[in-house]
Amino acid sequence: MRYAVNKDGFITNVIVAKEEQKAELEAALGCVLEDASEYGLQTGDLWVDGKGWTRNRDGEQYTLEPLSQEDWSQYQALSQELEQVKETSVTEEELNNAYVEGVNSL
Question: Fewer beta carbons below 10 Å: N end or C end of the chain?
Answer without folding.
Answer: C
